[in-house]
Structure formats: C-alpha cells, structure tokens
Amino acid sequence: MAASSGTGAASGGRSRTRGDAEVSREAIIAAARRAFARQPYAAITLKAIAADAGVSAPLVLKYFGSKEQLFARVARFGDEIDRLLDAPLPDLGRHLLHALLDAHEQRRDPLIRVAFALQHGEHATLLRDNFRDQVVARLRSRLTGPDAALRAELVLAHLLGLGVLRKIVHTEAISVAERDRIVDLCAPGLQRLLDGTV
C-alpha cells in the first residue's frame, strides 16, 4: 500500500513538473512578446524577459537557447492565428473581434507586434515575412470574389488599428467602451469585407 502510494506521488510530481514547465514556457513567450512589442531588439535582454515572466534567465536559455531563437519563436503567428480564424466565414467578422478582444484582456494581441517590426532592425524581415505568410495569406485563402487580397488586408488593417488605439495609444472612448458595443459597431463592416459585398 505504502509503495503504491509513493509511486503515485512520484508520478503526480512528474506530471506537475511537466505542467509547470509548460506554464513557464508560456510565461516566457508572453513576456517576450511584450518586450519585443515595446523595445528595439538590441535593447532587450533575456534577464529582463525572465524577470517579467517570473523565471530565471538560465531557464529562458534552457527552453529557447538564445535571444535570437526566442525572437524567432515569438515572431511566429501559427497557434494564435488558428484561434483567430476559427469560425465559418459567415460568422468570421464577429469572431475576429471577440477573439481579439479576448486576447487584449489577457495582455496579448496576435497581430499588433508586426506594427513594431521596424524597430527590430535586421530581425524585422522575419516578423514581416511571417505576418505576410502566416496571417495575410491565410485570411486571403478564406475569401472569394474580386479584390480578395485587398479585402483581407483591409480587415487586418481594421484589427491592427483597434489594437493600437486600445492597447498602445489608449484613446479614451475605445478604451472604456463595452466590448459588445465595439463588436456591434465594427462587425458589420468587417463582415462585408470578408463576404465581398462592399
């Protein structure tokens, strides 16, 4: 009985360790996204990212290897864009807004970091290329009809603008507005762009 109990505790401990590792990785990624959205690449240190994430700098190195490798991870949009585009086309306008506002409440924005690409010097190309290939192209592939590429980019321009005003500039009306009101006002226009009925 005692041996069995001890084995269970050990197994539970390993499970918690794996869970803790995943939590730490996600905290590091979130902290890195905040850092790379606010400061030039050259000014960012792994020590500062670690402090924001509540972990040690050696742990950042263990998980990601280097600042350059961490930036490469942060510059990817894959999973976040999966969530952002996870709706049928007729419902996508409202879904995009709800998903983006959810991300804002979690101190994340899957799009806004591309607006700061220029401050990252030679690393900016990776961020811009990933945005074009992993975000713009994926949304474009969902659309049909005339001007599909232009419409996709205009939708993203609206979403980026919302993020900048709400999370960076903190303009008064948009910062205090109820999220449902933002969705109700913005969704019809976005949906027309998505449907090609403008």
UniProtKB/TrEMBL annotation:
Q: What InterPro entries does the record tag this protein with?
A: Homeodomain-like_sf, HTH-type_TetR-like_transc_reg, HTH_TetR, Tet_transcr_reg_TetR-rel_C_sf, TetR_C_16
Q: Which residues bind DNA?
A: 45-64
Annotated GO molecular function terms are: DNA-binding transcription factor activity; transcription cis-regulatory region binding
Question: Which keywords does this chain's UniProt record carry?
Answer: DNA-binding
Outline the extent of the HTH tetR-type domain.
22-82
State the name under which the record lists this protein: TetR-family transcriptional regulator
Organism, per UniProt?
Answer: Frankia alni (strain DSM 45986 / CECT 9034 / ACN14a)
Q: What is the lineage of its organism?
A: Bacteria, Bacillati, Actinomycetota, Actinomycetes, Frankiales
